[in-house]
Amino acid sequence: MEWLLILAAIIIGVPAAAWLAQDSLIFFPQPLGSTAHLPSHAAPFVVSTADGTRVAGWISQGSSTPAPTVIYFGGNAEEVSHILAERRWPHEWSIVAINYRGYGTSEGKPGARELESDAVAIYDAVGKREGVDPGRIVVFGSSLGTAVATHVAAERPVRGVVLVSPYDSLSAVGRHHYPFLPVSLLLKHRFDAETDARRCRMPMLAIVASSDSIIPAARSRALYDAWAGPKSWQVVPDSDHNSLGATPELWRAVSEFLAHLAEPAR
């Protein structure tokens, strides 16, 4: 009888512990440290979301007027000020990067529904900003942010989408890493990008690492296959999940993709 009690405790206790710990397993909010690395032309950009939470970041104005604009959505442990310091962005494009709730100086606590809703509010705020061409807004998602960017693309008329290390759903990624848990039943933050991708008909560039230990290639391919619009697939050799963003191959692909979308819409 004793071993039955132990088994029952394991069967009940492990999923319960996973359910309670999932926020800290998914989100790793990072504070804002020094801003000395920000380009001199980066201006603060604060957006009030649907529930009144204020999320904060920056806009780096491009050389064109009005400028085509990239809205960047980062990974689960990323404070996004550093992406604005990247020198390989095409100079004519404006770059917007807003920290998720709880990251940087943004208010609130992160969650899937909140991040997706906030992302749409960010898009709407960017489209109304002076100096931005609302017909040339591209959303760019990295890792966790690929589902956020895909959600915006499903809800708003974006010009194009860049997805770095995309995935079809967080539950599918979770089942890969935790096959012994009923992930689909336990997961609160689902980030179901595949459902949104089936509604997206704008061009999409998917960039994946040749050896990604975080997001399996099958999960990236499932999202890619679900995308309803024109799409291209780029594998960066000799890269993994955490080194992919610094590779020249990635930035070359991004620059070429944006160049095709830079002309004003007709």
The CATH superfamily title: Alpha/Beta hydrolase fold, catalytic domain
Distance between the termini: 75 Å
Give the helix tally. 9
Overall structural domain count: 1
Strand order of the largest sheet: 1-2-4-3-5-6-7-8
What would the average pLDDT be, to the nearest integer?
90
Q: How many beta-strand segments?
A: 8
Describe the fold and architecture.
With 266 residues, the protein is of the alpha/beta class. It has one domain: Rossmann fold, CATH 3.40.50. Helix content is 37%, strand content 20%. The chain is built from 9 helices and 8 strands. It has an 8-stranded mixed sheet, with helices on both faces. Strand 3 (67-73), helix 2 (81-84) and strand 4 (94-98) form a beta-alpha-beta unit. Helix 3 (112-127) crosses helix 4 (144-155). The longest helix has 25 residues, at 2-26. The chain starts with a helix and ends in a 5-residue tail after the last helix. The model is unreliable at 1-20 (pLDDT under 50).
